[in-house]
Design a protein that fits this description.
10 strands; 2 domains; alpha+beta; 6 helices; 4-stranded mixed β-sheet
Length: 212
């Protein structure tokens, strides 16, 4: 998976496409690649903005407004000929709200990853906890081996991280996660004295992974 760190990334948007979306009064999104898309949004969308831009009030004495202000104060927009260069890290809380329902996993809180949105992977993660395999352990396999995007804000000093994970091939992720758990559980059953005798829940989990 590739990190898309909003502290570092600049999203490049075609200016005319953006203005067309603004003037349409339609609900639209800007993807992390800088594409303008309109509702209904695909489940694969990873966005840095979703909404519509309200028209100026007829009572307004200023009938123009700068493009730099159109997305609100949490976005920084610089015009560069026919392009807009957008920095979106200031809008991270809104971006979480846009994308949370479409992400495979949510690593935006200090509590870590609690579940997978995919039912098959959630079954894998839930059973794996019986052998002290956490969701983070499984996610590290995705981040190392799967194609996808880790949409995040990350800085070094002081260290800060918050992210949402998206994989492009869910079947591949399911296989990677399951095979990792099988290998790990078999090793624990062979070498870890804590699993010399299994509880009913541990035995059920081992059966789920066909590790017995």
């Amino acid at each position: 998976m590739k990190k898309f760190n909003l502290f570092k990334e600049i999203i490049v948007v075609n200016k005319n496409d953006f203005l067309r979306a603004v003037n349409s009064a339609k609900h639209f999104a800007i993807s992390y690649k800088g594409e303008i898309v309109y509702e209904p949004f695909e489940d694969t969308l990873i966005s840095i903005f979703e909404g519509s831009i309200p028209p100026l009030s007829p009572l307004s004495t200023d009938l123009s407004r700068p493009i730099s202000s159109m997305l609100g104060n949490n976005y920084r927009i610089v015009e560069d000929d026919d392009r807009l260069l957008i920095k979106a890290s200031g809008a991270w809380q809104s971006i979480i709200g846009y994308n949370q329902k479409r992400a495979l996993y949510d690593d935006t809180s200090g509590d870590g990853i609690a579940e997978f949105s995919d039912k098959v992977l959630e079954d894998t993660g839930w059973h794996a906890t019986e052998f002290n395999i956490g969701y983070r352990d499984i996610v590290e396999q995705f981040e190392a081996q799967c194609e996808g995007i880790l949409l995040c804000i990350e800085q070094e000093e002081p260290y800060q991280f918050s992210g949402l994970g998206f994989v492009f091939d869910i079947d591949h992720a399911r296989r990677i996660g399951f095979e990792y758990c099988v290998r790990t559980i078999k090793e624990k059953l062979e070498k870890d004295e804590d699993f010399a005798t299994l509880t009913d829940d541990e035995a059920e989990a081992a059966e789920f992974f066909k590790a017995l």
